[in-house]
Design goal:
The structure holds 2 protein chains of 2 kinds.
Chain A lengths: L8 E5 L4 E6 L8 E7 L6 E6 L4 E2 L4 E4 L5 E6 L8 E8 L10 E6 L1
Parallel strand pairs in A: 1-9
Antiparallel strand pairs in A: 2-7, 3-4, 3-8, 5-6, 6-7, 8-9
Chain B lengths: L4 E3 L2 E4 L5 E6 L6 E8 L3 E9 L2 E4 L8 E7 L2 E6 L8 E8 L8 E2 L3 E5 L1
Parallel strand pairs in B: 2-11
Antiparallel strand pairs in B: 1-3, 3-8, 4-5, 4-9, 5-6, 7-8, 9-10, 9-11
The chains are: A mainly beta, B mainly beta.
Chain lengths: 108, 114
């Protein structure tokens, strides 16, 4: 079973920031938080990952709470092409368990 | 690099037939993963290899499923005999070298068993 809980769906206006939450209250000390997304009919795509500190790359920012029990993925300026299912995964290795994710719809 | 290559992209077969799905990982990657995606069960990890050796096959649904990786550039997932409930999209992914946390997914094979 997935170790994370995400809202099933969210909407975001084009050009605005999309903030996708994830709860992982049972995370252990050596487990990373990963985010992937899946655009319709394609294979999942890696976005970002982190352990304790906040992380930023060209796609997104990852904010992890101090107690590490939750995190937020931020897409700073969402575009229509960011419409996808976003998966939050917690694991220490590569044996990923994908939950149902959050279906993000970016609206024009 | 061309990315992870999967073939065929679509497969339609009759119940009871043998199905073989193929995957070529990204050159230099030493991890290879097979996933299955259905509407009911979502995305499930079936098996993964490290340096051509199966590490965890606990996700393989039953003995009808088998996977091999004879060399670093090729893997197969075989279903024999196939059943309608095996209908799904099967993804192959690779990562590496070493403990790289970014898995690169192929385009998937859509399998339909009638």
């Amino acid at each position: 079973d997935a170790k994370t809980t995400q809202p099933p769906s969210m909407d975001c206006a084009e050009g605005r920031a999309a903030n996708l939450p994830c709860n992982h209250s049972t995370i252990s000390g050596n487990e990373y938080v990963y985010w992937y997304r899946q655009i319709h009919s394609q294979g999942p795509q890696y976005i970002i990952h982190g352990l304790k500190n906040n992380e930023t790359n060209e796609m997104a920012s990852l904010i992890i709470t101090e107690d590490r029990k939750s995190s937020t993925l931020i897409l700073p300026h969402a575009t229509l092409r960011d419409t996808a299912v976003y998966y939050c995964i917690v694991d220490y290795g590569q044996n990923f368990v994908f939950g149902p994710g959050t279906r993000l719809s970016v609206l024009p | 690099d061309a990315g992870v290559i999967q073939s065929p992209r679509h497969e339609v077969t009759e119940m009871g037939q043998e199905v073989t799905l193929r995957c070529k990982p990204i050159s230099g990657h030493d991890y290879l993963f097979w996933y299955r995606q259905t509407m009911m069960r979502g995305l499930e990890l079936l098996i993964y290899f490290n340096n051509n050796v199966p590490i965890d096959d606990s996700g393989m649904p039953e003995d009808r499923f088998s996977a091999k990786m004879p060399n670093a550039s090729f893997s197969t997932l075989k279903i024999q005999p196939s059943e309608p409930r095996d209908s799904a999209v099967y993804f192959c992914a690779s990562s590496g070298p070493g403990d790289s946390y970014e898995q690169y997914f192929g385009p998937g094979t859509r399998l339909t068993v009638t």
